[in-house]
């Protein structure tokens, strides 16, 4: 939404499926998320997203998820 004044923008809450697909390396999803961020969009996740990701976590994904959530926590403090 480049060019749209910030006051007129909507918050983008990511769906759990989108987050999971991104975590599992679906390139189209990763690129779309990157594009949103490049355009200055604010992307949010919810406590429900966090719970769903932990509930469906594969053993080999734990390290990556912990890293992503630690980044989220660091940015949330700002």
TrEMBL record:
Concerning InterPro entries, the annotation shows: PIN-like_dom_sf (IPR029060), PIN_dom (IPR002716)
- Domain PIN stretches: 13-63
This chain belongs to which protein, by name? PIN domain-containing protein
Protein species of origin: Kryptobacter tengchongensis
């Amino acid at each position: 939404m480049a060019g749209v004044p910030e006051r007129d923008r909507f918050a983008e809450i990511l769906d759990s499926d989108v987050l999971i697909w991104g975590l599992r390396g679906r390139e189209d999803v990763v690129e779309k998320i990157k594009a949103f961020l490049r355009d200055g969009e604010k992307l949010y996740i919810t406590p429900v997203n966090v719970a769903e990701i932990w509930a469906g976590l594969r053993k080999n994904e734990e390290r990556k998820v912990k890293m992503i959530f630690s980044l989220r926590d660091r940015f949330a403090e700002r």
